[in-house]
Design a protein that fits this description.
- It is a single chain.
- The protein is an alpha/beta fold.
- The chain has one domain: Pyruvate-ferredoxin Oxidoreductase, domain 3 (3-Layer(aba) Sandwich), CATH 3.40.920.
- The protein contains 6 helices and 7 strands.
- Strands 2-3-1-4-5-6-7 form a 7-stranded mixed sheet, sandwiched between helices.
- Helix 1 crosses helix 4 and helix 4 packs across helix 6.
- The radius of gyration is 15 Å and the shape is globular.
Length: 194
Amino acid sequence: MARTKEMLEIRWHARGGQGAKTAATLVAEVAMGEGKYTQGFPDYGPERMGAPMRGYTRVSSKPIRIHSAIVSPDAVVVLDETLLATVDVCEHLAADGQLLVNTKKSPAELRARLKLPAAQRVYTLDAEGISIAEIGRAIPNTPMIGALVKATGLASVESFYEDAKKKFGKKFSPQVVEGNIRAIQRAYNEVTEG
């Protein structure tokens, strides 16, 4: 089935342990809470810490009848910049797609390195730096969710704050919960487009 304009397809690239599975499902759950149809699931080979893996998220205004990996994403989120050297993260990215990368480099630097056409938008964010400063650990998934929300408008950023309070509040201290909310806020405000 061909992708429709009512659907946003997101492919996540990360290494095991960086939170791509959590991010892919969390984005789907929040969008579902706003009344959208969603899917969020991981795809990995050998399940080990540090191994390259992918996650997928679909968000649609209509029921989703596709049940497969995302081949031609509208947006690609890269949690680990080192994957750019070994994985073709832009493979089949939509002609007007969005690439979001956890890096200290500028969007222009990445565009030149990856030889991306002008129609594809590039966003960069030091998600690792934000997560260390706000959460106390190098877990880039939460900040990259904030960047994705800013780039795509797939759901309201406030919905992610509320969801973080509910989900993380069951497992973590109030300080960790507030750190995650601050990480989302900072990423939403600090992501750079080019």
